[in-house]
Design a protein that fits this description.
about 775 residues; Coagulation Factor XIII, Chain A, domain 1; Immunoglobulin-like; 7-stranded antiparallel beta sheet
Amino acid sequence: MTRVVQFLAQPRAIYFLLALFGALGALYSVTTPLFEAGDELWHYPYVQWLARGNGLPVQQPAQKQLWEQEGGQPPLYYALAAATTFWIDASDLPERLWRNPYAKIGVPLAFGNKNLIVHTSAENFPWRNTALAVHLIRLLSVLLSAGTVFLTYKLAREIFSSLARAHALALIAASVVAFNPMFLFISASVNNDSLAALLATGALLLITQLVTRGATNARLLATGIVCGLALLTKVSNLAVSGVAGSVILYLAWRARDWKILARGGILIGIPVALIAGWWFARNFILYGDPLAFNVWLEIAGGRAPQTLFGLLDEFQGFRISFWGNFGGVNVIAPDWVYTVLDLFSLLAVIGLIWSAARRALPALWWIPALQTTIVFAALIRWTLMTYASQGRLMFPAIAAIAILLTFGLSAFAYRVRQIANRKSENKNPQSAMLLPALLSFFLVLCALAAPWLLIAPVYAQPARFTNDAEVPNPVHIFFDADAAQPELVGYAAPRFLQGNELPLTLYWRTDKPIADDLAMYVHVYDTQGNLLGQWDAFPGNGLAPTRLWQPNEILADAYRIPVKNPPTYPPVGRIEVGLTRQGAMRPLAARDPQGNEITPSLTQFKFSQSADAPGAARATFGEQFDLLDATLRVQRAGQEIIVNENNALAFALQPGDVLNVNVALRAREIPDSDYVLFLHLTDAQDNLIVQRDAQPRDNLYPTHLWNAREIVSDTLTVTVPQNLAQGNFALEFGMYRADDLTRLPIRGAAWDIWQTRDDLLEALLQ
């Protein structure tokens, strides 16, 4: 441990940090499938357009282009990427941009459909065509971002030059940039943020050196050149030009020499105008707006008028996407990760406030603070116009943010140590660098974990096999799809559902290649046919479209379907699954193995509820059910008569009477099978007059869905025939197993009008 500390204390430790960043960047690059990083599926077509020798894109909102709104970005990054890959044949780009129409973009809590693009073997190593071009540009972006990490270290050394722990603070600030998982993710993609952050950080370093090393003509000119290049990379880098102007104004005020202002304005302003001015002039000529925001908003879409207070609702997404929101803004870490980072951020803010109150801030703290403030203010303005609440858009100021975070944490730890030392005779040996070092270590862990635990699993292909014996609950439902006949082989679903997500695995197969991209749908209904939930996707949750299915290969297709509780009783859901062509009004016909057309219902499940309160049983059916009560009600000529021990002897059946037996049953344990309830009316010779046999609740609530100790009420009804002759009768109630018709024996003492007899409950009538 001592050797590690000694090594990190040396200036060359920054090169180890850069090597580790490069390795992690390469890992993120190969882990993330093509076009699943940020807006890469729009950034790369811009690069390809330039690589083919075309001029700069002209935005035409009425004419859809592959680059969408990103065609309005300043061109420097795209030109550099095009120069790197112009020699590669990327004519297969349209095939690689096979969009998943059901992608849950910006919905991180959705279980599946995360992939923006359908991925094929054309992306596999060794890379070719578009895959090769994209991966080369990704590596270029990693190198550019490595430059940002290095310049963050140099900038922090400049800011902290008066402090004894300048190297340690600078190294940790650089590591906060390097190991921010979101920065790594964006750095390993085709995205102009990598060059924008590099040039913004380089410009900020030169601007700071104007104060620390003097505003020489060469330094002023270099600052202007880098600011111009930064602005030609991303419009948000106007912020760093604003910081440059503020620093020149400060230098002139400090020296009381306004010639510095004029000289600085000329030597910085002229390179900026020459390098980037033509871009803004072009925008004004083409679109009537030097920033081209008008066409950007027309393509990407604006938003309804919003207030600053209203944006607070979007802060959660903002903070998450600063540290790590991967894929199509729909892959996030567990909540506790962001909570820990929130805590570090809060402590850093407290440390900065403490230092400001004690006038202990570094002399040049205001430069990174000004850069952060301007970028944040510009982002708020942009977010008021369109949906842009993404923390990664702060990356042009990421070096400044890391420097402020690092110093704030160090100041907090130092202040806590001071307080502890005053109240204790034993000096606290903890270093003030411990807290920022903990942040750096935590980010390292997050950066290492994200590719393996968050990103890769989202895009993992579903399991495939050929053995039918591995498929649970075989159903063998076939669907008409022209020459092919895709088959739903089986499924796995819970009998009881806890919560509001239904886990469901479907097992698909086809006999022949399928020419179309068929969509899968799952509908969940209650017993009254109300829709409780649905899910539409390419099979494999977006990752295995039917065109990629291999004959006789079984595909395991897992889902978690959001469902709502049913508004009706019983709390039972029914699962229906089918296939449909995109845009078709009707699903494909479903057939059973004999070729009969069917409704493709798979099974029922129970929305689990807490067990009812215990109650005394009047009788028991076998070892499975308690009979809590039974009541006979007779409807006659519009009136209801309750038949009990007080009127049973005087009561006589009449033709047309409707006999309703209300029963309350309780399952002792979760039933192992489905049971049928029966109500029989027989004469004195035990001849059957009329009967009603049905599973509970008119076949809607089979007993295999009952919870243990759950009480279920039901009513069985029979109507006395019109030709009934006078005599003695018996009304019989009981239960039998649905699969083999075996009756359950009954035990219990007689009560009211009821008495038990072998395998039934009986009431004698006349």
